[in-house]
C-alpha cells in the first residue's frame, strides 16, 4: 500500500498535514524532500524556493538563517530579517499565509539539515587535514629510521669485514688468545647487527598463537570433528608477515587438514634459533591423504610467506611447515 503524500510530508517536517492542505503543496514538498535526500540540503532548498515562486506567484523568495540569507531565487534583493530564527520570505508580500507557513516550516527543516551537513563537512575536512599531517610526520620518521639504520650498519659492516679477514689469516697467523678475542668480537658484531635490524627494521609481524587457537583450539570446528592437542611455546609466535596474509594461510591449512578427515591431531610449534624460523609439526591419525587441490594451495601460500611445507610420507608421517620468525634481538626469550 503506497504511503499518502501528506503522510510523507508530515514525516519530513515533523508536523501533521490535514487533508484540506492543497495537493499541489504536498506534491511539491515530497519532491523537495526527495531532492534533499538524493543531492543534499542545499539542492533541496533551491527546489523549495522555485516551488515557492510557482505556488505563490511571487517574484522572489529567500531562506534566512537568522539575519543571513542562505539561498534565494527570483528577481529583486531580499531585505534582511529583523529577528532571528529560520524562515522563508517572499516578495512582494503574499496573502496565502497557509501555503507560506507550510513551505516555511519545511524550509526550517532544510536549514537545520544544511547546518548538520556543514558541521559534518567541517569535521571531515579537519580529519582529512590531520590525516595528511600524520602521513607527513610518519614519512619524516620513516626517513629518519632509514638514515639511522644506514648510519649504524655501515661502520658495523666495515668492522665485520676486517674481523673476517683477520679470522681467515689474511693479516698473518694468530695465537689462540687472539683467535678467542676475534671470535668474541665477531659474535658481538653479529648481535649488534641483529639488534639494529630488530629496533630499526621495517615490516609487519603477526602473532601466530591466537590464529592457531582460533583454527585448532577447543572451540574450533576441528575440535568438534576430532581430538586436537596443541603444544605451543609460552612466548609469542611472531611471524614476519602481515596479519591478513597469516589469516589466509591459516584458513588454507585448516581446510587442508580437515580434508584428511583425521580422527586425532597433535600440533606442536618449536623455534629454530639458528635459522630464525618457527617449525610447525602436525601429526594426524586416521583419515586419508589431503585433496590435491588443497595441498597445492597450502604449499603455494606457505611459499609466498617465505616458508616451506612438507606433506606426510612413509618415512616422515607428519606435516612440517617452517615460517620466517621474528625471534627478537639477541638475549631475548
TrEMBL record:
<dbReference type="GO" id="GO:0000155">
    <property type="term" value="F:phosphorelay sensor kinase activity"/>
</dbReference>
<dbReference type="Pfam" id="PF00512">
    <property type="entry name" value="HisKA"/>
</dbReference>
<protein>
    <recommendedName>
        <fullName>histidine kinase</fullName>
        <ecNumber>2.7.13.3</ecNumber>
    </recommendedName>
</protein>
<feature type="region of interest" description="Disordered">
    <location>
        <begin position="308"/>
        <end position="333"/>
    </location>
</feature>
<feature type="coiled-coil region">
    <location>
        <begin position="124"/>
        <end position="151"/>
    </location>
</feature>
<keyword id="KW-0418">Kinase</keyword>
<dbReference type="InterPro" id="IPR003661">
    <property type="entry name" value="HisK_dim/P_dom"/>
</dbReference>
<keyword id="KW-0808">Transferase</keyword>
<dbReference type="InterPro" id="IPR036097">
    <property type="entry name" value="HisK_dim/P_sf"/>
</dbReference>
<feature type="domain" description="Signal transduction histidine kinase dimerisation/phosphoacceptor">
    <location>
        <begin position="142"/>
        <end position="206"/>
    </location>
</feature>
<keyword id="KW-0175">Coiled coil</keyword>
